[in-house]
Amino acid sequence: MSATRLLILGVIRFKQPTHGYEVRRELETWRAEQWANIAYGSIYFALNKMAEEGLLEAVDVDRAGRRPARTLYCITSAGEEMFQTLLREYWWQIKPTIDPFQVALTFMNQLPRDELLAALRHRLALAHTSSEGMTFAIKALAEPNIPRHIAENLRLIAAHLETEARWIEEAIAKVERGDLP
Prior knowledge:
Elements: H1 2-15, H2 20-29, H3 43-52, E1 56-62, E2 70-75, H4 77-92, H5 100-105, H6 113-140, H7 151-177
Antiparallel strand pairs: 1-2
């Protein structure tokens, strides 16, 4: 939830006063679903929760025609403090990323050799395809209304995918030689 908090507080800080739909739209233009564990449906829950906690303040209710009312939020001083704390925490500390693949890797010896090789080759193809997809997504983020640094998240994902692909290639060779598992 803290990464989601940082994202939402940061967007509100940048666009305030704003409402949940604008927060969602901004995060969608940044393609946040590809580099952050953000569930767009949870934005409204998070906004309400952070307002209850005093991190955000509901400053107005915007009603346009027959659309449902939209609450406009601003960040409070407590929200600004939380934003700064989370921002620095994530810059200065390494937090482990839990990857289910690494959990499955622990039990690679439980798969038949042929299935293990097929799974590794499949994952290698996925890594290459995903890496190529990042290239297109990075180009799409070159729009003038999107901050230039946002694409760096996708560049980091692409670098991780390329590293994983190299590792998989080495693992395939080890399995084929009988060095693994």
